[in-house]
């Protein structure tokens, strides 16, 4: 016996998720993150246990710092 799939419900769910994502992106781009200066040694960070979002933030900050150093 085959299962019947209601594609219209799935499409509506995906559309709702996309709308929510677009709203989050638009609202997120207007506000700036507050950066708190902290001295942390790289050796103290356990990269294996960090989540992906945190690792991406670290990578972004490192790239930004390297680019600033290269310009000077």
Task: Please give a structural write-up.
The chain is mostly helical. It has one domain. 61% of the residues lie in helices and 0% in strands. It has two helices and no strands. It has helices at residues 7-30, 52-71. It is elongated. The relative contact order is 0.05.
Itemize the secondary structure elements and their pairings:
Blueprint lengths: L6 H24 L21 H20 L1
Low-confidence stretches: none
According to DSSP, the number of beta strands is 0
Structural class: mainly alpha
Largest sheet entry = none
Helix segment tally: 2
Overall structural domain count: 1
Order of helices and strands: HH
Proportion of residues in extended strands: under 5%
The dominant shape is: elongated
Share of helical residues: 55-70%
Mean pLDDT reading: 84
Task: Produce a short descriptive summary.
This protein has 72 residues and is an all-alpha fold. The chain is 61% helix and 0% strand. The longest helix has 24 residues, at 7-30.
